[in-house]
Design brief:
19% strand; D-Maltodextrin-Binding Protein, domain 2; 324 residues; alpha/beta; receptor; 12 helices
Length: 324
């Protein structure tokens, strides 16, 4: 009996200790891992949100770039971290597509993480080198089909947003093109600007300023409605490629086993950050908007991830572009 009472007492003390720790969370800086290089679209989004979350949480939220393998290295790093709320992951749609794209992953996509909430859904733009001949999207599709063995489509690497959008574009036009993977968005855009590659499909967070400056040619945006920041750019539906709508959504994750009270606190801080006037304004300049409060929740992110895995699985399998 004494042993039982002692065990119960120890359990009670542990419970009180845990509750106390949760009440004091966070007591030190929090790291958000971005599984891509610094300066890219996901990194830009993360730094804006991290700065605002720091104010609400009362601790600095720092960003660490752990790039490589289409985002899976950074995701794996977080999956193996202590579930204490001090190491998080901000990943985009690649979190869903990597489940099919990679034959072997160091983590179980649906089983290795807890969910904090959705951050934003960034539109994609179909762009090309400035001197590419076609004047509109219909002309681009005809040109690509007629020159499928020589037209090059740049992307930031297997699993990157530009790779996924490029696959979707080729699926939409029913024509495989020559894909040219780079080690990051920066090098891919540099070669597009220099005319070394023909086409790229990338996030507005990376293309808006180039489009506005006239340094690349823009054909369409992959949204149902035109964007305020690019009002003259037609949607894919308007431009003659109906059904090619895709947004690169971003979400925040924590390692599996992170206490629900911690993820809820992080979710609340995220919701506050997404209403921050500076975040809203900067997102608008980049052609995107913060997720609404109802989507910046654990349940909404979990549902989004599950549905997107199901959506992209047949597209990736049909393209046959797998990574080891």
């Amino acid at each position: 009996m004494q042993k039982i009472l002692t065990a119960l007492g120890a359990a009670a003390m542990l419970s009180v200790s845990t509750l106390s720790a949760l009440a004091d969370y966070p007591e030190r800086p929090i790291t958000i891992v971005v599984p891509f290089a610094a300066g890219g679209p996901t990194d830009t989004v993360t730094r804006l949100v991290a700065e605002s979350m720091s104010k609400d949480l009362g601790q600095q939220v720092v960003v660490e770039n752990v790039g490589g393998a289409g985002g899976t290295l950074g995701a794996g790093r977080v999956a193996q971290s202590d579930p204490d709320g001090y190491t998080l992951l901000l990943h985009h749609i690649g979190m869903a597509t990597s489940a099919t794209l990679y034959r072997k992953l160091a983590y179980d996509t649906l089983g290795a993480f807890e969910y904090v909430g959705l951050v934003t859904e960034v539109p994609m733009t179909i762009v090309a080198r400035k001197d590419l001949e076609p004047a509109d999207l219909k002309g681009l599709v005809d040109y690509a089909k007629a020159n499928k063995d020589t037209v090059t489509v740049a992307n930031a690497g297997i699993g990157a947003a530009s790779h996924l959008c490029g696959m979707l574009f080729m699926t939409a036009i029913g024509t495989p093109l020559v894909t040219v993977p780079y080690k990051g968005t920066g090098p891919a855009m540099t070669d597009l600007l220099g005319g070394q590659v023909d086409i790229m499909c990338d996030q507005t967070t990376n293309t808006t300023k180039q489009i506005q400056g006239g340094t690349i040619k823009a054909y369409a945006v992959t949204t149902a409605k035109r964007l305020d920041v690019l009002p003259d750019l037609p949607t894919t539906d308007e431009a003659g490629l109906p059904g090619m709508q895709v947004g690169i959504w971003h979400g925040i994750y924590a390692p599996k086993g992170t206490p629900a009270d911690v993820t809820e606190k992080l979710s609340k801080a995220l919701q506050v950050a997404l209403k921050d006037e500076n975040v809203v304004a900067r997102f608008a300049e980049l052609g995107t908007t913060p997720s609404p409060e109802a989507d910046a929740t654990p349940a909404a992110l979990k549902a989004k991830l599950e549905s997107e895995i199901a959506r992209w699985k047949p597209i990736i399998e049909a393209a046959g572009q797998y990574a080891d």
